[in-house]
Amino acid sequence: MFSSFQNIFNIPELRKRLMFTFLMLAVYRIGAHVPTPGIRGEALSEYLHQAAAGLMGFFDMFSGGALSRVTIFALGIMPYITASIVLQLLTVVIPSLQALAKEGEAGRKKITEYTRYGTVMIAAFQSFWMSVGIEKMGDGAFVDASGWSFRILTMITLTAGTTFIMWLGEQITERGIGNGISLIIFAGIVAGFPSAIGNTFGLVKAGEIPYFMLGVILIIVLSVIAAIIVMERGQRRIPVQYAQRMVGRKVYKGQSTHLPLKINSAGVIPPIFASSILLFPATIAGFAQVEWIKSIADQLAPGQALYTAAYVLMIVFFAFFYTAIVFNPVDIAENLKKYGGFIPGIRPGKKTSEYLYRVLTRITLGGAVYLALVCVLPDVFYKAFSVPFYFGGTSLLIVIGVALDTVSQIESHLIQRHYGGFLKGVSVRGRR
Q1: Tally of domains within the chain
Q2: For residue 426, what pLDDT is reported?
Q3: Residue 24 belongs to what domain range?
Q4: How far apart, in whole angstroms, are the C-alpha atoms of residue 93 and residue 107?
Q5: What tens digit of pLDDT does each residue of 172-183 get?
Q6: 70, 43 Cβ separation under 8 angstroms
Q7: Nearest CA among 25, 27, 63 for reference residue 45
């Protein structure tokens, strides 16, 4: 493995991409500590940390602590994700957007442009209500000056922060390694690991968590990590046979291969999308000083029945929704038929697409249930052991999923340039 790490730095393009990715993530982490003008950050952060056990603490994990400190990156990348969800849903139901999505690169650029506009609108809406809520907290004790000047300044600052994060993510995807948006969320979660570990050991020293229970927690966390890796790499391989065919004067022999269907085709998208949807109303409810809105926020706190039910249902929905977007059984069946391929025992064409649809539905259901079980694990941890959310299933799922995807891309660069794989003897997604 050490030689594989050396090979990374022997490829100039890969080295530049990695350095660019680290630089952009460093800029993101620096911005997460820049305070918002007009807000008394330390006093407000101490006040907001009292809500760390609720929904505020859960989503503060995704922003790397920027939300509780109310820095310029307080909204994080969630408005962009929310806008992406809305555009993808509208693409399914609006014919004009469907046609635009089929126009290739030009259509995708147009949809991306709409997503950016939506991101700015959502961020402006959320930041305005955050400024109103902060202004009312403690009768104005956390702001230097109140009024519309403060609200507009805060709205512009937080909206600009989210827009800048969106730009960073796009730059990482284009000029770096891995998916930029996912890596930004990854960096925010990983940044909280040291403090979470320190808090856990502090609870052990204080006697709130017995020493033997610490060992049990460690075993559970390692087991969850192993289960996530196994499930993320798990796939159903459907055998495909290609008949003998003649092209010009050449005769090509029949070949046997397989069509890999991943158990979790959607990856970490469903929990991220579900979290973003829950964050949108919770941001308003968390800062508004209205009793009935606070009661809704309390019901949407992690550990509550309403929150758990909504979270699980959204994860299952987005698992099926995203899988349907990235994998079309009808197109796969048509392509197999076009190139002379068939599934043994299944007639080409419509019967093949129906078979693929049945198989995909079954394994996607299993993948959705797996995602839901892993993501509700933080509730169990917090209720039973008062363990921070960083050791829960959602954070581990995102960290491991993004890490595997990034390693897979690095390995692809190494293999394309005739270097050894990044993980010798291990089959990473995308590698046979």
Answers
A1: 1
A2: 47
A3: 2-416
A4: 16
A5: 999 988 888 889
A6: no
A7: 63
